[in-house]
Automatic annotation (TrEMBL):
Name recorded for this polypeptide: inositol-phosphate phosphatase
Species assigned in the record: Streptomyces roseus
Keyword Magnesium appears in the UniProt entry: yes
Cofactor: Mg(2+)
EC number(s) reported in the record: 3.1.3.25
GO MF annotations, alphabetized: inositol monophosphate 1-phosphatase activity; metal ion binding
Keywords assigned: Magnesium, Metal-binding
One Pfam short name: Inositol_P
Gene3D superfamilies named in the record: 3.40.190.80, Fructose-1,6-Bisphosphatase, subunit A, domain 1
Binding site for Mg(2+): 74, 97, 100, 222
Amino acid sequence: MIEQFLAQDLSAVEEAIRKAAAVEIMPRFRQLAEHEVDQKSGPHDLVTVADRKAEEHLTASLTHLLPGSAVVGEEAVHADPTVYGALRADAPVWIVDPVDGTRQFVGGDPAFCTLVALAHRGEILASWTFAPALEELATAVRGQGAYVNGERIRSGSPRPGADLRVAMAHPLYTSDEDKVRLARLDVPGVVARPCGSAGLEYLRVARGEMDGLAFTWPSAWDHAAGLLLVAEAGGAQSTVAGVPFRIDRDNELPFAVGRDEATAVRIRELLRGA
């Protein structure tokens, strides 16, 4: 079933994502009323009516396109954490972050995106990163390369001798232990900054605009689409345990992403304190 679906023209998935953004997200961009923004775990963990409505829209449209599939969406998991278990089940699963970068969305910053990935038994098979306010769509299918608005992208390698540009987990969302590990990136030859929308940071690495990423949280909706995009552009990733990050298991965190293998290894070893 999943192989046949991937062999088809996937433009219907793109259309579903664009429609969800056009109907549920963009009409609310810079138009949110106070009552349409809520807090989840704290003042920096925001959710809006756009997040909820777009996820509902995508859940209906994506499962219609692939009957028998499940959806693991950020807002559904917040309401019922057992939904996350679908990542370890046998059915194909859509992984959805309806508005990645909600803080930016609420603030009127166009640097947010909708993330969708299709996975089966822990393997990420296809991904879509749509930044509607920036008019950019990045796509990847396993083994077929990475694209932005239909143009092939490749991550390449950092310029020899140049400082590594690394986006790392934002301090607003990290524990004291995380902060200790991330502080290990404060070394000569590395220029680190807090990340914004995770999906757009992955896109920057896939394009070679950033050299690497360091993340401390495992949420599949933040990472699945970007991990495939970077891999198909030529990049690499690894947890501090020296094994690839996977969406269907517990991972030793943090994990590193690089625009090439050597960069991913360097970031990983710094995070380990090696």
